[in-house]
Amino acid sequence: MILVLVEGEAAPAEVSLEAVTLARRLAGGLGLPLEAVAYDAGAAEGLGAHGVSRVHVVRDERLGDYAPEAWAEGVVEVVRRRGASIVVASGSDRGQELLAHAAAQLDAPFAANCVEVRAGDPLELVRQRWGGSLLEEARLSGPVKLLTLVPRVLAAEPAAEGVDLVVEELRPELRDEHLRVRVARHEEPEPGKVLLTDAKVVVGGGRGVGSAEGFGSLEELANLLGGAVGGSRVVTNLGWRSHADQIGQTGARIAPRLYIACGISGAIQHMVGCRGAKRILAINTDRHAPMVARADYAVIGDVQEIVPALVAELRR
Amino acid sequence: MLNILVCVKRVPETGARITLTADEQAIDTTHLGFTISPHEECAVEEAIRLAAAHGGTTRVLTLGPAGAVEQLQNALAMGIEEATLLETDGGDWGPQATAAAIAEAARARAEPFDLLLFGNESADNGNYQVAVRVAAALGLPCVTGIKGIEVVEGGLVARREAGGGWEIFELPLPAVVSVREGINLPRYPSLPGRLRAKKAEIERVTPSRRSDGLEKVRLVVPAEDGRPVEILGEGPTAAARVVDVLRELGLVAS
Ligand SMILES: Cc1cc2nc3c(=O)[nH]c(=O)nc-3n(C[C@H](O)[C@H](O)[C@H](O)COP(=O)(O)OP(=O)(O)OC[C@H]3O[C@@H](n4cnc5c(N)ncnc54)[C@H](O)[C@@H]3O)c2cc1C
Ligand SMILES: Nc1ncnc2c1ncn2[C@@H]1O[C@H](COP(=O)(O)O)[C@@H](O)[C@H]1O
To answer: Rounded to an integer, what distance in angstroms lies between the CA atom of residue A143 and that of residue A109?
Structure first.
């Protein structure tokens, strides 16, 4: 049996349906049934159309909010009771965390951030290293194998033919130690703030912006375009911007319609954060900067002259 | 009092492009320096701050080749007190073998650690699991991806970003926590710190290597899409042309 972890409350999360799509192809290739584990009955909604024959919904009175070790124990019990040989999840924060815990408990191998997986034993797969700037072809072997799929590389698709879905409650045998770590409360996002990850235009600044004050004209430009301001690691490290604004391997992954990269050289660790941008406009004094080569449009020159001129032109 | 262990990994400092060795097994580091993940730099900083605030000891550990002494010395220069090298003959160790060796080294200490800090993921391999496996091997609670730690009576309060807001975890000590860049702004090593680090004795241990179910076949540099760039102009006079492009893209009203 192949098991897929499905996140979501009222409905399955889109990234989980991507994982279901991959898991269904593996199940087809190996001639195995496909089952799911979920933590809310809502997440089971419509999974039959995606080829899932059985969903195990984890329940326990002591389980309120997210508790990584207890949730992972749900995965472990389904694997043991139903004999799963492959477990798939999305490479979301919770997906990575839960499969890491389950893999540790099962003493099984876990390949994070796969982009391609071929059915077989061992599994042959391609996974991301360096945040996606390098790929690794690898083999995953063992009686149980776990893997996560990079979000948004594979479009979620329903099965050619849906199947009848059985929804079952699963009561894992939780011990106190499974409940040691839990979410005690939440803080909601600031209302009205344009998130970097959702912005349709992002104006990014790097070392070439010159100072914290230098970001003033970038802010103006972002405001005029209804966008958000971001930056490179150099500017967050220098304290010119807060880390929340960082784009890249250890910062945010953005996907705007346009990314305006001002005074940013285009290091690979920065580029993996802005690969999702439809178009890139580079503003840089150096015509040979990697960012210029990787952009769709470029203006050669000083950020502190060009951005204010652009703001003035938009205000005309 | 907190006895803190922080785990870091030596990785090449790649620039604008990655070049592989001829056998496609590794990054060609002939012209590269080495560093650690920004997440791990923050873990080092957090260890120093927590020990300063609550008292206790700090130790940095890495599993890697002899050259990884450089990364240990950088952590010592920032203010970590002691260092351990689990020395290998180079080459990648998989996440199961790495975690087993780290857990073994932690277990071997007379004074157990109260807090083990990791990066959320290693910069190069990004396996997202070594911290969790070490926690499981030591029977400790674990939380990952943390951007805020507060020590409270009996344990920790740890914050993780989720959808623009925050999830706030509570967990008892001793514990394993993996952190993300942004939890703090790491200090630069001081000159006296650097001098002290050069002289500090580094504990060397030869780790035993268990098998791994994840096995690298080869590395591949992904193809770039090679779209040509259109130079819109030089200097501020290009502004009008840029606004035309913004109109074409439908980002400003025409
Ligand atoms: C493991 C790891 C993770 C990392 N994660 C990230 C990450 O998440 N995000 C990130 O950004 N980086 C990350 N980095 C750092 C990355 O490697 C680069 O060091 C960083 O992106 C460089 O920032 P920069 O482009 O602002 O600075 P620089 O590389 O110094 O580039 C400055 C650019 O500005 C141009 N310039 C200078 N003056 C002007 C001017 N007046 N007008 C116009 N242009 C000008 C220059 O020509 C140059 O192209 C990471 C590194 C490692 C090792
Ligand atoms: N070779 C290593 N030596 C010391 N710590 C490591 C090593 N590999 C991984 N780690 C730690 O485990 C974290 C997660 O690594 P990974 O599971 O590879 O993504 C890293 O950020 C480090 O803190």
So the answer is: 9
